[in-house]
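To the wet lab folks,

You asked to see what we're planning to order before we commit. Fair enough. Below is the target structure as tokens, and below that is the sequence we designed to fit it. If anything looks off to you, flag it before the synthesis order goes out.
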């Protein structure tokens, strides 16, 4: 696996993203009935905010996951918990499988995303708020160092608020590599982001 990252192009990438977000496995993404035009509008708005940014993850140059990073202080989370300096929010959607199952792949993607976020020395803690019913992602999050903080009510869902500090991530990553033989993915940001999000 060789992961790189680039900013989402809301227009050019809309057909690809539409294909992902409208599939049954992506139900918790909240865009099941979206049209391609709706995807263009959603991601155009995200990219224009200055505090919320969408990034496409590539595996060997092939689109493999969608990651959104945002400032919790400028999101609905601002009223759900006491936002701390150094907090960064994150959403992640892995592409639908295109071939044989690859055990550990989603964990490797999450590892790459967290490493990227923590490369910014201003980031102390990654915040996630998946749907409280999304048990699969809760398990993955805990494997990578997230600690649940409780259920919070957001405009579109009941969410399990969880935090991952830099030390917790490094400890979880070391354990994951040690016990599961997960190789550290090779990746670097291929296109730096300049839209104001604290990455």
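Sequence we intend to order:
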């Amino acid at each position: 696996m060789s992961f790189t990252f680039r900013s989402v192009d809301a227009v050019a990438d809309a057909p690809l993203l539409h294909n992902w977000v409208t599939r049954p496995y992506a139900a918790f993404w909240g865009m099941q009935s979206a049209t391609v035009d709706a995807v263009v509008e959603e991601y155009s708005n995200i990219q224009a905010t200055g505090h919320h940014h969408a990034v496409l993850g590539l595996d060997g140059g092939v689109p493999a996951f969608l990651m959104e990073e945002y400032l919790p202080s400028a999101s609905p989370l601002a009223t759900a918990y006491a936002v701390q300096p150094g907090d960064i929010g994150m959403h992640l959607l892995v592409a639908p499988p295109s071939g044989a199952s690859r055990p550990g792949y989603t964990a490797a993607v999450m590892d790459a995303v967290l490493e990227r976020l923590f490369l910014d020395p201003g980031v102390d803690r990654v915040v996630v708020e998946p749907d409280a019913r999304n048990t699969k992602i809760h398990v993955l999050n805990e494997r990578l160092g997230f600690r649940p903080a409780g259920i919070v009510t957001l405009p579109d869902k009941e969410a399990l608020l969880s935090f991952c500090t830099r030390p917790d991530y490094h400890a979880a990553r070391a354990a994951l590599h040690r016990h599961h033989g997960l190789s550290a993915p090779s990746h670097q940001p291929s296109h730096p982001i300049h839209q104001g999000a604290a990455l």
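Structural context that might help your review: The first strand starts at residue 2 and ends at 7. Helices lie at 14-21, 36-48, 105-118, 135-143, 166-180.

Thanks,
Computational group
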